[in-house]
Amino acid sequence: MLVDPATREAYRPAHEGGGLPGPAFFTTEERARAYAAEHGLHNYEVYSVPGGILARVRGRPHWINGKRQG
Questions:
Q1: Are 56 and 16 in contact (CB under 8 A)?
Q2: Does the predicted TM-score (pTM) go above 0.85?
Q3: Distance from C-alpha of 70 to C-alpha of 60, rounded to nearest angstrom
Q4: How many domains does the structure of the chain reveal?
Q5: CA 28 – CA 65 distance, rounded (Å)
Q6: Taking burial as the number of CB atoms within 10 A of a residue's CB, which of 12, 19, 25, 40 is the most buried?
Q7: How far apart are CA 12 and CA 61, in angstroms?
Q8: Domain containing 16: what range?
Q9: So what's the pLDDT on residue 15?
């Protein structure tokens, strides 16, 4: 997960439509850093989260490796 160090909030990719987009998760730190570089993100920290967290967001919008889920 990419986290803004100033606000401690998870990065949420912009999306079309209403509502707050869900957080972005990445399968590896390398994928997170590559995504950040590709999208011009400079002020972030990579934060590891347990895999079980995905069960908590099941059915809600979230992103995995740049692809929207839910």
A1: no
A2: no
A3: 5
A4: 1
A5: 9
A6: 25
A7: 10
A8: 2-69
A9: 67
Q: How many CB atoms lie within 10 A of CB 25?
A: 21
Q: Is the dihedral of CA 38, 34, 66, 2 positive or negative?
A: negative
Helices (H), 1-70: 29-38, 53-57
Q: Are 12 and 2 in contact (CB under 8 A)?
A: no
- Separation of CA 55 from chain center: 15
C-alpha–C-alpha distance, residues 17 and 19, integer Å: 7
Give tens-digit pLDDT for 7-34: 999 998 876 655 667 889 999 999 999 9
What pLDDT is recorded for position 19? Answer: 61
pLDDT value of position 47: 92
Residue type, 29: E
Handedness of CA 64, 60, 18, 5 (dihedral sign): negative
